[in-house]
Write a structure and sequence with these properties.
single chain; alpha/beta; QueA-like; Thrombin, subunit H; 2 domains; nine-stranded mixed sheet; six-stranded antiparallel barrel; about 25% strand; S-adenosyl-L-methionine; QueA_dom1; QueA_dom2; QueA; EC 2.4.99.17
Length: about 350
Amino acid sequence: MKVSDFDYHLPEELIAKFPAEPRDSSRLLVLHRDTGKIEHRIFRDIVEYLTPGDVLVINDTKVIPARLFGRLETGGKVETLLVRQVKPGEWEVMARPSRKLKPGKKIIYDEELEGTVTGYSEEGKRFIKFTLKSNKDFMEKLSEIGHIPLPPYIEREETPEDREKYQTVFASKEGAVAAPTAGLHFTEELLKKISDMGVIIKNVTLHVGPGTFKPVKVENVEEHKMDYETYNVPEDTAEEINRAKEEDRRVIAVGTTVVRTLESAADETGKVKAGEGSTNLFIYPGYKFKVIDALITNFHLPRSTLIMLVSAFAGRERILNAYKEAVEKGYRFYSYGDAMFIV
């Protein structure tokens, strides 16, 4: 299977630079994976496709202001992006210019926060030990001087509004460096309406890392390796999903991160196990889904692991045909773009 099999043409003007306002006014393409039928709706119309007893699973991870700007003691500028915490006070980071960041190098972020490079990680990443010269909590300091790491294709600097808009309304567990973007379309009011109609809403946590968006640089899909990301499935979520599967009720994933969490936490029979774990599960066509029955997702980059995942779920030809129609009808693409519901 070739990476080029998942390519498509996207006019640059269809890349969303800002989110829809209100959130649930974004467009919704409904794709029926059994027939290939496509419907064009507004996101808040999703209630018409939900049924009492459905289990809607959301990712409650919260994006942290993980982008930091500092300088070396010699004066050179440094940009770091936190990837994951490896131990208290120490993080794996992406950094530039990385060639100057050898072990022992010190980075000064401001008068209170410094970082020391402690070693090398995979693919040019670094480990940095942070030191605070105050009694502030690290996350508190991060909120003061850090920046929301908007995806590079948005091609603009962060605005104050992004701190709220690039965050789901149910975000609560700090740790992600990218938003689980399928969840951005929900409002508090829409979630209440969905709950009131008898849909059961449950949460998992997967802290989205930059590896989710890592370009596939190999020609053969099967040779690509995903980065590990940490997840947690609460006991009540696992119990409700397992009960739903036994009773032939649908499990609907809000986003590819939920898909990867549930499929990673399930055994071969499809029973989901509660608890913490880490996953580098790479889903592409040929994968046999064990848990999810429907998927809410955004429109993803060509040749990406995300378009491969949705192709595995709905079929490559059907996905590429849906993307072609979405382009023709002027849908907005990527993180701040419109949504697709695969039923």
